[in-house]
Amino acid sequence: MTMASRLGIDTGGTHTDLVYVDESGKTFLTLKVATTPGDLSEGILAGTETILAMAGVPPASLGRFIYGTTLVTNLIVQGSELPIGLITTHGFRDVLAIGRASRKLNIYDIYWHPAQPLVPRHLRLTVPERSDYQGAIVTPLDEDAARLALRELAAAGVQSIAVCFLHAYANPRHEQRVRELAAEECPQVDISLSSEVANEFREYERMSTTAVNAYVSRSITHHLDRLAGALESSGVPATPAIMRSNGGLMTFSMAKRLPVAITHSGPMGGIIGGIAIAAACGIRDLITLDMGGTSADVSLVADGSPVATTRGKLGHYPVLLPMLDLVTIGAGGGSIARVDEGKALRVGPTSAGSVPGPACYGQGGKDATMTDANLVAGRLNGEYFLAGARALRRDLAEAALRDNVAQPLGMSLAAAAIGVLTIAESHMVNAIKLISVQRGLDPRDFTLVAFGGAGPLHAVRLAEELGITRVLIPPAPGNASAMGLLAADIRHDLVRTYFADLAQTDLEALAATLREMLEEGASVLEAEGSQPALRRFLPAVDLRYQGQNYELTLPLSSDAAQGLAVADLEKRFHERHRQVYGYDLKERVIQVVNLRLTAIGGVEPVHWPRHDDAAGTAVPTGTRPVQLDRNRCEQVSIYRVETLGGGHSLVGPAIVEYPGSTLFLPDGWTATIDSMRNAHLNQDSGRNRS
Q: How many CA within 13 A on the CB side of residue 423?
């Protein structure tokens, strides 16, 4: 089967990254353009036009358009004033404010205060209605009260309403009726139903997820409609798809119905890209480091499978949807360095973004950032930033670093630059420990796969601190997240809450529910345009011991819908619980909680281009002074990635310049280039840490 030409676009806070692969798999092009915060579509369309011109093809030749964005995350983190309302069961108005009534993470933090609910109290309204956990109607919906609530919220200027009734996961009829009433009372208002957004139990998490969906609904719909319309007008025939938080794709039309599902859309592309690139190199255990202009994202992949969670968070708000697990910190190229009142040097989480950007951008920024520090340290080439598309001014970087760091701390400019980089790297080391050491995993057993515009600049220093001796740098590290978009499958997750003691469960009823879910999953994939031959369905069940508040998800066989065995599930759950927690409770009753189904619509694999093996040794393009540490500055060989080929080997200290990134290779490390231009970095055996 011929692979359609593909364009992947990842829009971040500072830059928009593009990757184009043609139908033959031989043309592979990358591009970085400035993100346009006022209207993201402008930067996307400008980049699309440029990269297609580079390929020499018309927009009509594009077979697939895949998009990743941080827009949903930004809307929540920035706390934009978007008036939304909530309608819930009488007596449950304050669920969003109460939450789980958990104590703060640090009980000694006297400055801690709970996050404000997304919906203010005066816009949280209740109506009489009630179903029980099995779906039986206890109190009929008071339709007059529902109409009154809808009119009151519309009169208050609400643009979107979250509807979350108790036990709606078991019987959605009352929520569906409210939507019908809303079509009569306030058709201009968007409606989000919990039974469609997060169809499982736990009223707080379900209400929070539905509120997030309502909060971002209007902005996401406007953005995707504008982008889709502009693509159509420019002649792109492909149905646009977007990366979602579970590491799969869905169409724009589906995303507009479930915008909360595209949380962390861009960073998920990085995880999938890291997995695909590592798999092509035979690497299955990896830690991904995606460092851009605003933040750094880290994730762990064991045996080729990323860690997933059904209880993620967006900012301070829980999200009850499957998503790939990652840790995000405010450490990017634009992270601002400052000296606090106690004369301590701080880096991030505040970022200079793309406007005004780092001081060296020459756009009026006065704050010192990590990009400024890397430029002053000689690790960045100011004349080849973004392949020369933007010139970086060292004089402005030095002035910002001197005024904001060096003079307040009474240190040299070189020491200030290294200090900024060292502190930021310590934050990233701690983030990697969160996903490895604190989960009982040794990071030394993994390969660090580093990408993003700034990832390769810091990867080796992070590896040294963690005792990691293997680092992989992709052939286009500044565009790896966009590469991941091209490798992602269509993916949808279905869930049905099913409460029962396992020993007393009606297994035929359980299997029948799975069969219904399989039919629904096939229907969704059909609507998404997935080819039947490429579809896969992965059933699973959530189990827990009686009295526990958290479940473990057990994968089921593909034929589970034809029948299940209690004894097998009991045995596997005890083993899994012992593996995760170190013990089991074989005398305790096991409960069934949820049935899950992941419906996957596969896409044709991407064949990354390969290059001829190199002839002779690698030849540097020149040298420049590079600050290797606080007290040591040396002339270092500089290489361009396009001059490197399979078999080339570099010995640190060295620098490799990519069109969208830069690799800093310290002394004590070697880099071997393979036929795909991946750089395999290895620490000299004599420097391995125990």
A: 21
